[in-house]
Amino acid sequence: MDKLLNLKEFEVEPKNSSEAALRRWRKLVTIVRNPRRRFRFIANLEKRSEAEKQKLKIKEKIRVALLVQKAALQFMDAAGPLDYKLTNEVREANFEIEPDELNSIVHGHDIKRLKLHGGVEGIARKVTVSLDEGVRSDNVSTRQKIYGFNRYTEKPPKTFWMFVWDALQDLTLIILMICAVISIGVGLATEGWPKGMYDGAGIILSIILVVLVTSISDYRQFLQFRDLDREKKKISVQVTRHGRRQQISIYDLVVGDIVHLGIGDQVPADGLFISGYSLQIDESSLTGEIDPVDIYEQNPFLLSGTKVRDGSAKMLVTAVGMRTEWGKLMETLNEAGEDETPLQVKLNGVATIIGKIGLAFAVLTFVVLTVRFLIEKALKNEFTNWSSTDALTLLNYFAIAVTIIVVAIPEGLPLAVTLSLAFAMKQLMDERALVRHLSACETMGSASCICTDKTGTLTTNYMVVNKIWICEKIKDIGGNESKILDELEISERLFSIFLRAIFLNSSAEVVRDEQGSKSLLGTPTETALLEFGLLLGGDHDAQRRQIKILKVEPFNSNRKKMSVLVAFPEGGIQAFCKGAPEIVLRMCDKVVDYSGELVILSEERVRNIMDVINGFASEALRTLCLAVRDVDETCRENSIPDSGYAFIAVVGIKDPVRPGVKEAVETFLAAGITVRMVTGDNINTAKAIAKECGILTADGKAIEGPEFSSEPLDEMRDIIPKIQVMARSKPSDKLNFVTNLRNMFGDVVAVTGDGTNDAPALRQSDIGLAMGIAGTEVAKENADVIVMDDNFATILNVAKWGRAVYINIQKFVQFQLTVNVVALVINFVSACISGSVPLTAVQLLWVNMIMDTLGALALATEPPNDALMKRPPVPRVANFITKPIWRNIIGQSIYQLIVLGVLNFDGKQLLRLTGSDATSVLNTVIFNSFVFCQLFNEINSREIEKINIFQGMFNSRIFVAVMVSTVAFQVVIVEYLGTFASTVPLSWQLWVLCILIGSVSLIVAVILKCIPVERAVVEPKHHDGYDALPSGPGLA
């Protein structure tokens, strides 16, 4: 049916669509009543192009400035004297450096001028901050006054009256207003006050009502999108204030703050490197250069908006907000909006095609009415006699034709998609899922596969040490940490080595709040180990104070280990390493025995350790190995050895499966969505968790990432359908897996990720899902949806709402097209046969509001039901307007046309209407019956194939509110506003008749749904090994 409507040109990709495709469909949309409203949420390609050019200019300016400054500094022996003067404002605030001076040092990478100020310590003194204690809370407002706020210039938000103005830009409404003014003028001249102004005033009042309802709906959407946009921009940063490490909003950051940076963080402001290890910064967002920049004491300059690729550091903030280059860039971002969704584009196509048909009908109706009028005048020999009444009649014909265009062009179709998506996104935000891109919510309805992480998504991410192997003994940890040492019979020396391996090789920290209470800060794995060490009686702070850290290699998904090089005050250097068992074990050639002595790590010991590791893993424990090595004093500070270590211990960490995960997996499988686990953990741990979650079945395959990536393509094609678990997966393995699922099998793939290295897979997937708690800023930036509670069950809600959006829009299309067909045909046929139309301009405007704004509110915002997850996903290539929808449209249209036609041409005899007002009563009955047919058909449209249309109806408060308000206003129009709406009050018998005529459409719907229009096709098994799910009326 989509082919019949020729919608092929109205197709775009849901993600990263080409500019050619975006421009192609825009050119084809020629029939638009109100471009400002229709395209409000559509990307402005011209503005986007201008913004991109401006962005590139700023980037090039920054890049050239940096290159020139660096080149110039190489030929300068010394910087000039500090000849700038402090303003009174800065001096009175007790600062010793101007904001512009701070900016010039960092922007220009002026290391020599920095040294003239005394280096980082000198700058800290001049902004009156201690590098250890950080900013005092009572000093924040002063800093914001002198150095600015960490906010970017944004356009002022649109007011409600701006939406009213946009709604008034509708060309057809403007024409109707002109007609109404002329009608009032002619009417007053011919019929006097007040009768002469009724028709024109009725049209004006209807237009005011339409504009107000439209504006209120649009303004509510705007507020929803504004709330979502604010939520997207919420970024938290770790700072030291008052000597305590704490988390604050990026907007509360001030010059002088001490910021802690880690892998995947976005640098929140311009600043200077204080201390850190192996810090590498990706400056491509600012300069376009893809090579990472090493940051250290001799190159301490950090720019806002850049990303931490590796390492960790503390930085001193020197510039915030619009004083940074990133602030200037931010002005150009999102200037032109985001890409439109496939449904928005497709329904723009439907609206265009139907609009052309409606325009043709409107012109024909006007021509037929005018020709009949002229013929009648000619037959009465009055062709040369023209009066103001004749002019008013022709004007009325023209107004009716314009109103038919208002009804015929379904302006609300593409806007209903935006309304439905906005509503779904708002509801999902309440359910802890933040949708960053409109198309993601829509695409999730077609998802056929989810590749999920294990840690923190399927599991709680609250970790505790559950078992330990040390000195060839295994010990269960059950809250008796203090007795473990006695039971294991290890020496003080080994205990000291073990605690050093925990405390010194850790990125976690012990922090204290205002009351002095201790808490742990860091990743769940790190805090679990640190907590275990503290429970054993170790003193973390004392251990850290006694040593000097020479170098750190932080953990990442490629290395799968963390290493540290430390120097002791009594002399000697040691390297500590912890990480994945296969990585650490390969680096060891010795093992520490119970007395703390080193003994050879024999093959037999290696096999025993591997048996322990596999045993821990089979109990669903995360396994980490700890190792140590003495390092020669001559070892360079930037070199941590990768061999020659002594094996210390195996730690088994328990991370329980989240409640509700198994049920969520079962629901996904019932919905035809395959769930696959992709994790960096040990394969035995992964298999144990996958079985507990219901992901790994007897027929499923578990494979390690490197093994998968080494397979030839033909082999991959055979094994991919069976893979349910991929363990020891590197980011490249994950990307490879996702790419092949999409390209080989046409799957619509959703991928979860939390790390920086997950970014490529999140970008490549159809729907990227980043974790809100454990996820890095880089992962969130590349995701389409942020799962704010890191819970797998939340993804189920996203899928439900994605499917609900799709089916809700189908319901609305069915409803609106039925109204379109009936309104067009009844007016055209009546004009051709009787020379008049039963529905006036005012009545058609009311009908337009019912089927457009109110219909969209009622049908496009229905919440999802459980039945949605008991049917397979809708393929992307599926026709949007399905055969059952066409069946319902055609069937209901035929019924309504027959009933209204009979009333129009033989209603007076059937209803025994007599008297001077018989025509007015009949026309009111036709109008009233027509409205009630639409109201009952709106209820019918709640289900496209299911017979029970009332199920869950009262759960949708918006639907019920729209129905009640529509009925109430219809009563008011008929009984009390007849002067303006060309109606007369009806008897209770006629009211009952109108309601009965409308309600018969419920019976018609039942009969229609019993007519088979699609034969069920028996499909082969799904490529994942699951049987294809049945489909049909019972599962709609």
From TrEMBL:
Q: Where in the cell is it found?
A: Endomembrane system; Membrane
Residue ranges of domain Cation-transporting P-type ATPase N-terminal in the record = 116-188
Q: Which SUPFAM superfamilies match?
A: Calcium ATPase, transduction domain A, Calcium ATPase, transmembrane domain M, HAD-like, Metal cation-transporting ATPase, ATP-binding domain N
Against InterPro entries, the record matches this protein to: ATPase_P-typ_cation-transptr_C, ATPase_P-typ_cation-transptr_N, ATPase_P-typ_cyto_dom_N, ATPase_P-typ_P_site, ATPase_P-typ_TM_dom_sf, ATPase_P-typ_transduc_dom_A_sf, ATPase_P-type_domA, Ca_ATPase_N_dom
Q: What is this protein called?
A: Calcium-transporting ATPase
Q: What is the lineage of its organism?
A: Eukaryota, Viridiplantae, Streptophyta, Embryophyta, Tracheophyta
Q: Name one GO molecular function term.
A: ATP binding
Output the PROSITE patterns linked to this UniProt entry. ATPASE_E1_E2
Keyword vocabulary terms for this entry: ATP-binding, Calcium, Calcium transport, Calmodulin-binding, Copper, Copper transport, Ion transport, Magnesium, Membrane, Metal-binding, Nucleotide-binding, Translocase, Transmembrane, Transmembrane helix, Transport
Pfam families per UniProt: CaATP_NAI, Cation_ATPase, Cation_ATPase_C, Cation_ATPase_N, E1-E2_ATPase
GO biological process per UniProt: copper ion transport
Q: Which species is the source of this protein? A: Durio zibethinus (Durian)
Function description: Catalyzes the hydrolysis of ATP coupled with the transport of calcium.
Q: What is its EC number?
A: 7.2.2.10
Q: How does it sit in the membrane?
A: Multi-pass membrane protein
Cellular component terms (Gene Ontology): endomembrane system; plasma membrane
Q: What class of enzyme is it?
A: translocase
**So where does this one cross the membrane?**
171-190, 196-216, 353-375, 395-424, 817-837, 920-937, 958-978, 990-1011
Family stated for the protein in its record: Belongs to the cation transport ATPase (P-type) (TC 3.A.3) family. Type IIB subfamily.
> Mainly resides where?
membrane
Reactions catalysed according to its record: Ca(2+)(in) + ATP + H2O = Ca(2+)(out) + ADP + phosphate + H(+)
